[in-house]
Amino acid sequence: MNLPSPAIVAQSAVRRLPRPLLLAFCIVWVLAGFVGRGPWKNADISAFGYMLELAHGHTAWLDPKLGGFGPETDGLLPYWLGAWALKLAPSWVAPDFAARVPFGFLLAMTLAATWYAIYALARNPRAQPVAFAFGGEALPKDYGRAIADGGLLALMACLGLAQLAHEGTAYLTQLAFSTLTFLALAGAPWRPLLTATFLAAGLAGLVLSGAPALAVMFGGGGTLLALFESRSAKPGDPLAISADEATLMRRNALVTGSITLMAAALAWVLDLWEWRLVPYEAGSWRSMARLLLWFTWPCWPLALLTLWRWRRQWLGTTLHRHLLLPIGFAAITIAATVSTQPADRALLLGLPAMAALAVFSLPTLSRGVAALIDWFTLLFFTGGAIVIWVIYIAMQTGWPRQPAANVLKLAPGFVSTFSPTALLLAVVATVAWGALVVWRAGRQRHALWKSVVLPAGGAGLGWLLLMTLWLPLLDYARSFAPQVERVVAITGTQDCVEFQGFSRAQIAAFQYHGTLRMLPMYTVTPHCRWALVDVDGPEPTPAQRKSMIDAGWSPVALVARPADRKDTVGLYRRTAAR
Question: What is the fold, at CATH topology level, of the domain defined by 481-574?
Answer without folding.
Answer: D-Maltodextrin-Binding Protein; domain 2 (3.40.190)
